[in-house]
Amino acid sequence: MRILKLELERYGHFTGKTLEFRSGASLHVVYGANEAGKTSALNAFADLLFGFPPRTPYNFVHDNPKLLLGATVTDKDGSVLSFKRRKGTSKTLLDMQGAVLPDDALTPFLGLIDRSVFLNAWGLSKESLTTGALQMLKSGGEAGISLFAAASGMKSLIEIQKRLEMEASNIFTPTRAQARTFYQAKDRFDAAAQLVRTLELAIRDLKARRVAIVDFKDELEKARSARGDVIKNRELLVRLKDIGPILHLIASDERALQEWEHLPLMDGSRVRQLREVLDLSEEGQRELARLRREEAKAKDLFESFVVDNHLIEIGPAIQELVGELGSYADKKKDRPRIQGEADEFKEKLQDSAVRLGLPADTELALVRPNEMLVAQLKEQIKAGRSIATSISANAKSIRDEKVNQENLKKQQSGSVPVSDPKSFHDQLGRLMPALGQLKEIERLERSTAKESAQIKEKAAQLSPPVSDLEALALASLPTKDVIDEYRLSAETLVGERKTLEANLGEVEQSLPGLQLRVDELAGGQLASSPEKIAAARLERDDHWLPLKSALLAESKCLTTAETAAHVIGLEEGIGTADRLSDDAVLNADRLAKHAAALKNLKDAQAKQENLTGLLSDKGQAVAQQEKEWQTLWQPLGFQAATPIRMSVWVGQVGDLLERRENNLDELQQISDLKIAVNAVRSPLNQIAQSVGISECEALPVNLLLAAVEKELGLRAEAWQKSSQLVTRLAAVNERIEALVTEKDGFVDLESAWKAEWYEVLSAMHLPLELTVDGAAAALEIWNQVPSFLSQFQNRTTRVEGMDRDMKKFQERTSALLEQLDERDFGLGPDAAIKAVSVRLNKAQQVETQANMAQSSFKELERQVLQAEVKAEEAAAALELLCEGLPPSSSRVQQVLDLEARDAVLERLKGRRQTLLPLSRGQSEEDLRHDLESFDEATAVAEIEALKIQEGQHNQRENEVYASLSKAEGDLAKLEGGVGAEIAVQLRKNAEAELIENTRAWAVKRFAQILLAHAIEQHRSQQEQPLLKKASHLFSLLTANSFAGVEQELDESDTFRLVGRRDADHTLGYAEMSEGTQFQLYLSLRLAYLDEYAQKAEPMPFIGDDLLASFDDERTRKGLTALSEIGTRIQPILFTHHSKVVELAQEELGEKVDVINLD
Amino acid sequence: MDFSFLHSADLHLGSPFLGLSSNDEELARRVAAASREAFEELVEQAIIRQVKFVVIAGDIYDGDWKDTTIGHFFNRQMARLQRAGIPVYKVRGNHDAESVITSAVTLPDSVKVFSSRRPETFLIPELKVALHGQSFANRAVPENLALAYPAPEAGMFNIGVLHTSCDGRPPHANYAPCSVQQLLQRGYQYWALGHCHEYEVVNSAPPIIFPGNLQGRNIRETGIKGAVVVEVEDGEVSNFSRLQLARIQWALISADLTGAASEEEAFEVIRGEIQKEVNLAGGTPVVFRMVLSGSTQLHRMLHTEPGRVVDEVLAAANHCTDAIWLESVKVQTSEPSTASAGQNSPLASLDMKSMLDSLRESPEVLKEARAALEVIKGKLPAMDLPTDVFSDESISNLVGEARELLVSSGLSSEERPA
After folding, report:
1. Is ipTM > 0.90 here?
2. Residue B344 in contact with partner chain A when CB distance is under 8 A
3. Interatomic CA distance for residues B161 and B157, integer angstroms
4. What are the chain A neighbours of B414 within 8 Å (beta carbons)?
5. Which residues of chain B lie closer than 8 angstroms to A1011, CB-CB?
6. Which of the pair, A351 or A115, is modelled with greater confidence?
7. How many CA atoms lie within 13 A of A645 on its CB side?
8. What pairs with residue B2 in β-bridges?
9. Taking 70 as the threshold, does the pLDDT of residue A523 lie above it?
10. With the C-alpha atoms ordered A11, A13, A15, A16, is the resulting torsion angle positive or negative?
């Protein structure tokens, strides 16, 4: 495929850029100073042919949906396709009219090549060339890798090989190592398998465990039985040891019983009854004696008391008077105070009568007015007061309003008459739309003045400065395009001049060296030179040719002298030429080098001359360009700065001119507004004159307007005040009139009230001249009179009651004293009663004590009788119970004996009961028999021994029980648990892990195997004719320093690439210079592509600054090599070095197509 | 009388999970207990639902017991059912055939085992139910057992219990084969089948049902696993429904990464697919295999960084739920618009893919690969190797994977000419 046209419609920073690729050219050189643009264009090829990737960096100007590329391509057969490519997920291929093309429309042009193959194999940059060459070096020029890497453009085969090897060995190596994941999984498998075996073994042992449990149970039973025997023996010994003392005590008791054999047998209850009766009898005798003593004492006491019976008889009367003593004393104390209060109220009543205008001794209760009359008086007082208040208020209001009326009248008579200014206001209102613009005019005048000053200031600050912007506004300035054109042209010229200067400097620097080399090779001894030999041969031929013509009779015969001269000349000529030739042969090598050096020197000198000429031309061109630049600005009258500066300057001037234009517009606006204002001046003057503003013609409009507005304001205020005064006076007059009418009403009301007033006063016995307030005071006194009357009555009654009660008490006291033949000795009835009362209390106490002593004596008499009866009954009962007992003086001793015998019998019974559980059914006789052979001392030792034995049996029993429990627990666990299932699961997991590791390792290992085979197969297939083609290109690129490229087997039987110098010499890849290595890599790559092109549809070959690391000579060769494949492949070389362009043009002439990207 | 019963089969108690290349002991513990727990749940459900009886259509055990632990476990569960008054009717299948299971634990009287010598019928008069069945005598039973099953008991609800591959259910072995027609001809009201591990309603009226196994044990046994509850009204099946009992659910999750331009996009797609499966599992813990397919720019990364891919997939899974484990990740993606030219194409010189394609079937390569594989095979411990690991086909596939790896590794070094 060849590309004829690439359209960067919207891509990266390109918009509407088209690159035309001339058909027939064997190399396209795309030159672009701007590297970013170059990179964009390069990537555009891949995006165009294979579609945009989902994410693209080339959307920084145009959004993704707008990105668009276009191209016209042709294939080997001459088919041509024009298409466009947009960014998207589908239907991205379009024809030139924008219709969708099928996705496979490009297939005939692309073959099977995909994006990655295109980028790897058909693209080559300076960097990838370096990396590729380095890759070959790393492999030591190993043929397989080198060929494959060069062919495919892949640069990391060795790294891939190493990585695969490392990754595989991380998983597995035949030699065991713990770090390998395979062996880690294997360890887990072994551990799990071991666990499974252990658990299965344990589980398989279930039967044995069950048997063991039965054995443990048997053993436990035996241990328990043995312990039982020991316990039995020990218990027997302990029992015998305990029984001995008991039997001994029993025998002792039996012996004691023999003492009471003379007493009849008697059961315990009868003995206890006997004891009770005996105790009762003795107790009765003791009680009788005691009671008799008490009786005698009581009698003596009773007889010792003397009682005052007369006083006690009249005791109740005395008590009654004593009870009234408190009341008598109170009355005696309160009477004077109550009498005082009665007198006080009496005085108050007399005072009230006097205050009401009645005689002091008037019985007020008789002349008291009734409630109705009092209410009537209250009403009249209230009405009278209300009428008086109203009359007073009315009079005050009339006075106030009259004062007000006078004041208003005074104001009215003092003010100047005024007129309504409304008509002037209306006239001025009609002028206001125009006059309102005065403020806008002021604002605009301020802003335009400020803007003018700023523009002027900014213009002066420009570089170069502008003093007269007005003049500049009229002048014609160069456009930005023109300036940019000059800028680009100047930059180009200066750049070219710099390049020429650098090249000239380089050449001039090389000249002394070249001259030195020529001089060295000439060495001052070089007799021969091709020129000299040629000259000698010419001279020889000058003699030979005449001789030859003469000898061959082609010319006239020579004279002898002539012949001799020619012969001599010929001999000398031959001799000289031969000598020079011999000399040349002897110094051939030096001669050749001298010739080459001389040629180089001459070439350099020619180049110097050429460059000097070119530099001079370029200098003139720069000067000319500068002159033209200044000429451009001449009409403006100042020296122009650089195009870049002037480009900025033009922009700034443009801004200022725009501001100036805007300012002029505003000035025009001011002028228009002023005309509108002046149009209303005349009517304004008329208004001013009408309102009395003098000399209005002389005032400016704004001041005049202010004066008119002020005057009208004053007039409006005065007019408003005058109107308000009239209104207020009318209102006052109205109010006075109303008040006078009201006053008449009040006089009538007062007359009616007075008639009623006199009636009420007379009914109340009050004087008719009494005022309202006086009547109110009388009413107040009458209000208090009932209370005074009531209080006076109350106190008088209480004093009378007191006197009556006190007299009665005194009479009763006197009567009582008479009865007792006593007198009061002038102490008063109350003291006398108190004395009698004390005597009475004492008599009553004596009487009480005598009564109590008598009761005690009577009670003791009764108790003595009872005790005598009881003692007799007890003695009889005792005798009855003692029936059957031998006669005895002491029944008490007999009872004591009987009781002692019963106690022994009871104890004996207890002992036998203690013995009973110990005897285990044996009789006392048998036990005594057993004990005869029992030795307690030995038994104690034996018991201790048996205790030890029991402990041993117990321990054994516990041990067996523990084993049994564990065995049963284990069994339950095994039967109830999940057995070895977890371990089996772990083993299965480890198996899966091992298989996973195996697979993963196999993939890595197989990849190594595949790669090795691929490389080897590739190498073996590519020997011919590829190496032949590569040899040709290598020879071309190295200017025949190498004859070609070959494969050689090294000592390890590995094929390696070598460069052939001549028939006998080869040079290994590693021994080549870096530049030569690059050339070899390039040769191989181009050879592959050329080879491919012969078999299938090739792609254009894109070189990106491919030759940047080559010197000029190598660059020339590189360009030639690229051109060489250009008949089958379209080589496109991107570069930003103008030198490459020059060299291409020099080297290839018409064959190269230079495309300028900028 | 209206009643319900439970139909289950293929408990495979004591059988480990396969293909879990995890060394997570907690996971091992869970999966080892999963089959038992699922069966405990079945018993629990039978008691809660007060079913009248339970039918187990074979393969209670995975094979002969190495110990009686499993027998005791089963016995304990049967005893629970007995205490709840629920009898159990079971046949032996190929995995627990009479000759296969040599040990024994005495089961409660309420467990009735069908004879392996001839078809046997158990009657439940109070329910008017007759159960007909025959156990496997040996691991392989090539005969059609169904043919000899007795005629239905008149006026009763007849259930046929049979461990069978029916008319063929690969990959399950073809045992006790029979046709659906033959089963229908028996005239039973319900056929309780076992052997096939997938739930399948072979016939709906009358129902002929494979309940599937109780607990999936490998990546081929995905989805819901459990038993079937059958409700009977007036002597006919009125309804049947599935009961999810598995403690762990296996899931094969595929994510099509076609068009995924970034890793974020890809793992979002993956997370979405996992979430769907987690939702379907409804809270049951999941063990899953992730299969990544489709044509994507990420093809190279997915092949060259398997460790990271596994980590990311696990992370995506754990974003969905805690109760999830990864069995493996299978990368089956392709590069967008890859073309291969073959050995004779001139492209073979330029394109490693073409070159490698030409070598995939090379006898030398395969021979060398097999020799390499023998080395690691020799280091494997004695274990049950899946039959396909060292087969020619497997080697060929692994070479294919190696080719993908190379293509992915080799082309990643250079993308643009500039």
Report:
1. no
2. no
3. 13
4. 119-120, 128, 153-155
5. 406
6. A351
7. 9
8. none
9. no
10. negative
Alpha-carbon torsion A557, A559, A560, A565, what sign?
negative
Would you say the C-alpha torsion B72, B73, B75, B79 has a positive or negative sign? positive
Compute the distance between CA of residue A161 and CA of residue A138 in angstroms, rounded to an integer: 13
Span A102-123, mean pLDDT?
79
B380 at A interface, C-beta within 8 A: yes
Secondary structure letter of residue A266 according to DSSP: -
Task: Give B195→chain A minimum CA distance, Å.
Answer: 23
User: Is some CB atom of chain A closer than 8 A to the CB atom of B415?
Assistant: yes
**Cβ separation of A1003 and B338 shorter than 8 Å?**
no
Is A976's CB within 8 Å of B72's CB? Answer: yes
**For A747-754, which contacts have Cβ atoms below 8 Å and span 24 or more sequence positions?**
A747/A391, A749/A387, A750/A387, A750/A391, A753/A380, A753/A383, A753/A384, A753/A387
Q: How far apart are CA A237 and CA A243, in angstroms?
A: 10
- Mean pLDDT for A950-969 is 89
Report pLDDT digits (tens) over A841-899. 888 888 888 888 888 888 988 988 888 888 888 888 887 888 777 777 777 888 888 88
pLDDT per position as a tens digit, B32-55: 889 999 999 999 999 999 999 999
What's the mean pLDDT in A472-487?
83
Q: Any idea of the CA torsion for A809, A814, A815, A817, to the nearest 10 degrees?
A: 120
* Per-residue model confidence (pLDDT) at position A72: 93
- Please judge whether B383 and A154 are an interchain contact, meaning their C-beta atoms are less than 8 angstroms apart: no
CA nearest to A984, candidates B268, B16, B63: B16
Cross-chain Cβ contact B398/A1102 below 8 Å: no
Distance between CA B371 and CA B384 in Å, rounded? 21
Q: Which residues pair with A1066 in a beta bridge?
A: A1060
Helices (H), B321-362: 352-359
Give the residues across from A73 on adjacent strands.
A3, A81
Cβ count within 10 A of residue B264 = 9
Beta strands A68-74; A80-86: pairing state: antiparallel
How is A960-981 classified by DSSP, letter by letter? HHHHHHHHHHHHHHHHHS-TTH
Cα–Cα distance, A832 to A816 (Å, whole number): 10
Residue A973 pLDDT > 90, yes or no? no
Q: Mean pLDDT for chain A?
A: 84
Q: Are the beta carbons of A566 and A558 closer than 8 angstroms?
A: yes
DSSP classification of residue A764: T
* B22 contacts in chain A (CB < 8 Å): 989, 993
By C-alpha distance, the chain A residue nearest B358 is A1014
Is there a contact between A1139 and A1146 (Cβ–Cβ < 8 Å)? no
Contact yes or no for B413 and A128 at CB 8 A = no
Provide the β-strand partners of residue A14: A11
Q: Residue A146 pLDDT > 80, yes or no?
A: no
B256: closest CA of chain A, how far (Å): 17
- Distance from the A100 Cα atom to the nearest Cα atom in chain B, whole angstroms: 19
Q: How far apart are CA A470 and CA A472, in angstroms?
A: 5
Structure tokens at A337: 């105070």
Non-local CB neighbours of A283 within 8 Å, separated by 6+ positions: none
Q: For chain B, positions 234-263, list CB contacts with chain A under 8 A.
A: 259, 261
Give the whole-angstrom CA distance, residue B34 versus residue A1135.
70
Looking at residue A686, its pLDDT comes to: 85
**Cβ contacts (< 8 Å) between B362 and chain A: which residues?**
1013
CB within 8 Å of A795: residues ≥ 6 apart = A338, A339, A341, A342, A345
Answer whether B288's CB lies under 8 Å from B221's CB.
Answer: no
Lowest mean pLDDT among A127-141, A145-159, A305-319, B313-327: A145-159
Q: pTM for the complete prediction?
A: 0.46
